[in-house]
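Usage

Read records sequentially. Each one opens with the input sequence:
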Amino acid sequence: MKPALELRGVVKRLPSGARTLTIVDGIDLSVAPGEFVAILGPSGSGKSTLLGLMAGLDRPTAGEVFLDGQPLHSMDEDALALLRRRSVGFVFQSFQLLQNLTALENVLLPAELARLPEPRSRAEELLAAVGLAERGHHYPSQLSGGEQQRVALARAFAPKPAILLADEPTGNLDSATGAAVLDLMAELRERGGTTLVLVTHDAELAGRAHRKVFLRDGRVERDERAG
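and closes with the structure output:
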């Protein structure tokens, strides 16, 4: 079985004045289909940069990134956009909902872009799954932070992505709301057999993962499997 996600010798360098900073430094990583991997490490260790490289939102300076067998590092922008639309879901710390669309419309849009059959039914089903069936007509500004993140979760799962990438998805939430959001994410992931890669500072949240990958200074320091 081919990996859902594979990184081979991935490096990311950025110019900083007269110097060059190495943000990600030669990472090799393979994630199996359906696996839940938590990426941990101190601020500045390269976690969010690594997630962007996994998604094809950023290109490596060196090395190769394969998503569902497709070589992200050598694809043009149109091909990358199409692959992301079909195969990748995102959950961000800052929610990133479209403010001029209702909760239902935010979830409906990626389902429509993915050309799923009956996208409205899919969106309504997911809003119900995250406990917001009655709030679909509300705009993001009318929802609490926890409710917005639940809409963001429903939106991420709407196109039935093969892989979900989450960057500190509970970072702006209180602990109780964050735990509820994580429960929902785990439930939706199990239901769809989705591969999940989650960046977090929270060791308790990471404890739910099948595997924990610890970064330091852009390198994998430890790679631990649960149990």
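Summary fields computed downstream for this record:
- The mean pLDDT is 90.
- The first helix runs from residue 47 to 55.
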